[in-house]
TrEMBL record:
SMART domains: AAA. This is ATP-binding cassette domain-containing protein. Keywords: ATP-binding, Nucleotide-binding, Transport. It holds the Pfam family ABC_tran. SUPFAM superfamilies: P-loop containing nucleoside triphosphate hydrolases. Residues 1-221 form the ABC transporter domain. It comes from Kitasatospora paranensis. It comes from the Bacteria. GO terms for molecular function: ATP binding. InterPro entries: AAA+_ATPase, ABC_transporter-like_ATP-bd, ABC_Transporter_VariousFunc, P-loop_NTPase.
Length: 280
């Protein structure tokens, strides 16, 4: 996913909501967007999801995208099961696979007993679970989450955290907004802030000056810019590859290295600062 020089305004004389925005999200990355209310965060996410087109600039987006909007419209003529199966078909699944995935996510979010309930009769929290489930069943290359955790109970929030980790480990891209500053702290690979219509690097996903983790691996390793945390990569003895990454991104990096049946062997994982201390 790549946005280049993206701007958005509504109407020829309207103010620019976004201007000159550039953003790239590589496979396996989990990117956080921050900003004050009304700053343009949701507009940015709608453009990334392909729901809106930029007024200027270019948006190169994966074909398979899924989106949880800030506000899910429950007044739709479906029950839960029918809606999820229909969205599965929209995402290109055949009827059997759409039904299987709908059942899977209803079970994971604890709404299997609501399958025949019309959307308009659901509680706000249950409706939000449906909104999240419809995006996750797509197994999309780009998952866009606009405050998707809002309204979920604790168990459902944890389930969504796990689902994001699974999507990133499978090579998906995740772009999200959330009010909780600790949301996905162990998975976020980059952070940005929307301010005055521009996108700027935000606070790093870990503490500035925090620890660095050194990972030694054997086997084929993807390029560093396609890995969570964009680790520093060097060659070690005996064909070993050494990756150094911020501690907060180390879990996401390990999941990415070990996902998908790759023939990668992790030889060691250690805090680089501790190793430096031992050397001294």
């Amino acid at each position: 996913m790549r946005l280049t020089g993206v701007g958005r305004r509504y109407g020829r004389g309207g103010p620019w909501i976004l201007r000159g925005v550039g953003l790239a999200v590589a496979p396996g990355e989990v990117v956080r967007i921050e900003g004050r209310n009304g700053s343009g965060k949701s507009t940015l996410l709608r453009i990334a999801a392909g729901v809106e087109r930029p007024t200027e600039g270019a948006a190169a987006l994966p074909a398979r995208r899924a989106y949880v909007p800030e506000r899910f419209p429950p007044a739709l003529p479906f029950d839960v099961r029918g809606y999820l199966r229909s969205l599965g078909r929209v995402h290109g699944l055949d009827a059997a696979e759409a039904a299987r995935r709908a059942a899977h996510w209803m079970e994971r979010f604890g709404i299997a007993d609501r399958t025949g309930t019309p959307l308009g009769r659901l509680s706000k929290g249950t409706c939000q679970k449906v909104a999240v489930a419809q995006a996750l069943l797509a197994e999309a290359d780009l998952l866009v989450l606009d405050e998707a955790w809002t309204g979920l109970d604790g168990a459902a929030r944890a389930e969504l955290d796990d689902a994001v980790a699974e999507r990133a480990a499978a090579g998906g891209r995740v772009l999200f907004v959330d009010h909780d500053p600790e949301r996905l702290a162990g998975q976020v690979t980059a952070g940005y802030a929307v301010h005055a219509g521009a996108l700027r690097p935000g606070d790093p996903p870990g503490r500035p000056g925090g620890p660095t983790v050194r990972i030694e691996v054997e086997g084929p390793v993807p390029p560093a810019d396609l890995l969570p945390g964009r680790p520093v990569r060097t060659a070690g003895p005996g064909g070993v590859t050494v990756l150094e990454v911020s501690a907060v991104s180390s879990d996401a990096l390990l999941r990415r290295l070990l996902a998908g049946g790759r023939t990668v062997h992790v030889r060691s994982v250690a805090v680089a600062d501790a190793l430096a201390g031992e050397a001294r």
